[in-house]
Amino acid sequence: MVEQVGIRRLVAHLVLWIGIAIVAFPVYLAIVASTQDNAAIANGQMSLLPGSHFIDNYARTLFVGTKGSTREPVGHMLFNSLVMAMAIALGKIAISILSAYAVVYFRFAFRKAVFWLVFITLMLPVEVRIYPTYKIAADLNLLDSYAGLTLPLIASATATLLFRQFFMTVPDELVEASRIDGAGPLRFFWDTLLPLSRTSMAALFVILFIYGWNQFLWPLLITTRDDMQTVVIGIRKMITTQDALTEWPLVMATAVLAMLPPVVVVVVMQKLFVRGLVESEK
């Protein structure tokens, strides 16, 4: 019996390590390619071991840029992506938690109708309403601006729904206790609901940060200047060169750098993220 348990555990670990190797190999290949000479990659002679151009390639990627379709340094692209991802994540959480608080705890006319109107917007993603959204952004002079990159994506029906469901699990006795203690709506929201929602906000922040970081279509439409493009747009432009040879080491270095901020967010907020998901399922 002990031997069977040991064999099953060995097989499980073996399958796990094979899965990790399959997932991690493209990432390892991108890291290795980012340290190679462009000629070695172009000639199909890339080694599977790290090359000697690590510092040169990453310094050029961060502070100079490529010679092809975009000459913008990747450091500035990363800054634009960071601003966009942070604004979208924090803005969605702030708007969603306030709207869910109003729907759950305030009694006003057409309260349920308002909630269902918010819920129906789940069926209208950005891709469906792309033209009217772009027209409004252009009329408001939001093109090539951080406001244009973030404001049209800042409302979230999903986050509102999640916060509403969480608030509905808060016991009514807690609300009554706050009233007896003399707390008004703002104090109850700030001192009671926000601390209770900490793990849910953390889980949503991780998901929404990655959502904002990976945006491609909207930044492609709303920005025309190189200094406003995000890192995802930058990678695309680096690959599609018309007359020049694609500088693959710089493309791979950009891809590696673009992976780092989402990884850091997930690693730093891992405990809160898992607790937020588990408590949401309850």
Summarize the structure in short:
α1 crosses α14.
Element layout with pairings:
Elements: H1 2-33, H2 38-42, H3 54-63, H4 74-105, H5 111-120, H6 130-139, H7 146-150, H8 157-167, H9 172-180, H10 185-196, H11 198-213, H12 217-222, H13 231-239, H14 248-268, H15 270-281
Assembly annotation? single chain
Order of helices and strands: HHHHHHHHHHHHHHH
What amount of the residues lies in strands? under 5%
- Overall mean pLDDT score? 86
Explain this structure to me?
By secondary structure, the protein is mainly α. The chain has 15 helices and no strands. The chain has helices at residues 2-33, 38-42, 54-63, 74-105, 111-120, 130-139, 146-150, 157-167, 172-180, 185-196, 198-213, 217-222, 231-239, 248-268, 270-281. It is globular and about 75 Å long. The protein starts with a helix and ends with a helix.
What key attributes describe this structure?
single chain, 282 residues, mainly alpha
